[in-house]
Design a protein that fits this description.
By secondary structure, the protein is α/β, with parallel strands linked by helices. It is built from 12 helices and 9 strands. The structure holds beta-D-galactopyranuronic acid (GTR). The site of beta-D-galactopyranuronic acid (GTR) has 9 residues, from loops. Beta-D-galactopyranuronic acid binds next to loops.
Amino acid sequence: MRLFPPLGCALALFPLAALAQQKQANYDESAIPPYVLPPLLQSEAGVQITSAAEWITTRRSEVLGLFEKHVFGKAPSNWGKVICETISVNTDALNGKAVRKLVRISLADYPEWQGIELMLHLPKNTAKPVPCFVGASFGGNEAVTSDNDLPLSTRWMRPGKGSGVVDNHSTEKSRGSEQERWQLELAVSEGFAVATYYCGDVEPDHPEGWKTGLRSFLSKEGAAKDWKDGEWGAIGAWAWGLSRIADFLASEPGVDAKKLAVIGHSRLGKTSLWAGAQDTRFGVVISNNSGEGGAALMRRNIGETTAIITKAFPHWFTKTYANYANNEAACPVDSHMLVALAAPRGVYIASAEEDRWADPKGEFLAGLHAQPVFTLFGKKGYGVTELPPVNTPIGEGIRYHIRTGSHDITRYDWEQYIRFARSQFGS
Ligand code: GTR
């Protein structure tokens, strides 16, 4: 294994200062100070949780509340009526393999918020409604698909290598720049729909992004807001967007809304985990290379740390989270509890061998230590206690693989997710 992550793919999203930080981080297992994980099956009152019913009635809501308070913040409930309008339908998308719908999701009470431009790809000629992957993308809809007939997103974009973004906006070169990450043709040919939206529709991904994003519209103070401990951050807002898509899909005749798999890569994998934790309509939860603030245990001081992430991306989390920089032991949660919040639904955690920054072993361990909750529901976990060899998926109700290669979401990853979703949904 490499001692630090390769720079190629990482360059796409990292400024040089961040790359220097990646190089300087600890990648030595033996240098991780000893740590104790917070108890999963003990309530705040000190009562041991011994059944699925007790988990559901007592501990689950406690753990959810702890993540709201200390990590991601609590979403407000004042968004009001959701409006879904079909903007366009292309019955010949993806070389004739799919129907593509663009749907605008906006809020009746907040017309100044531009809304989400949801893109839904449905397989053609299916006899019944199909299961659907739901995820947020790094770029506009035009980046996700190989089709070139979409209007370019006009929203603020984070620049990145190969993204075609110029002056923080999409250009013709942005078309298809994310298509490898969204294996749309594979998914539809396997009988799955795929619903995506650009995360920046909800909040542009930079520390001041909330000022023009949903978070400011939903707050009384608007762009003058002074964020307080426990209030939501960008990851919470992006996850909220995924739940609004689930709202829409409930009335989409082509989709079986009882079979939704929430998926995300990296920062958007942190988002899919948090969306899946809060919204049980997501029957499968997929975390691809989600790393620190996602599946990786925060108490393992290796690769990216709480101190680094809260400095570089303060807007992703609730304000409180920064208090745990170099002070992880004081945090009442760790990522095994985030994974456990998905139980008894299926969870897939995936790592990449060269993605040392995201701490593959820490991602693996979160699934391992979440197992006791799945056991309460009679669900099997990994079935192993050691990191498996590369490209060897393991586990049932909690599944895991470490793929060869770098920080990315690839066709190999999608093949595993499709197989897993099928096994979980029985489709
Ligand atoms: C990095 C960040 C990671 C990861 C990644 C990504 O800059 O340090 O936590 O989320 O971005 O989203 O690709």
